[in-house]
What we know:
The chain is mainly α. It is built from eleven helices and no strands.
Amino acid sequence: MNFLAHLFLSGPSHAAAYSDVLLGNFMADSVPGKQLESYPPAVQTGIRLHRAIDTFTDQHPVVRRSTQRLREAGYGKYAGVISDMFLDHFLARNFEKFSSEKLPEFTRRVYALLTQHQAELPPRVQQFLPYMVQHNWLVGYAELEGIRRALGGLSRRATAGSGMETAVDELQANYAGYEADFWEYFPELQKYVAEILG
């Protein structure tokens, strides 16, 4: 659910087929494996990029350190989802250190592109996109309250007792540790994605 990182890592906006790569990266979680080849090649590239980012992230020792901290705090199988949200928080907080665009400018541009291509998205994504835009989720991630709302929404769709709605308390309690993990991990992810995109 770390939408900001996936969207940001879809490549420079001037790149050929950028729009299709971004669409694929954004909607990949709603595309079953067998449906991949029904999309145009550049959208397929975005879907594959999303999956590569997820695999790299799940296997990265620094992220595993974060998720282990969350498991020890009682979040069990949801530790990975929560860790992803924490990473988006730190990216949003520090966006201008990674981009020449300010976060609000980036999100306006991306929302416009996604909305323009909404009919091409899977039904589930078409349903939540207007709420994402209306409530400006991506900019909201920069604040703890925005992360709290996002995790609360995920908690309502998870099995009872996930506890995700309380995970911001864990972030606040161990903020420096999660922030240090982000700074160690994210530049390595950027380098990995740059190698994939060529």
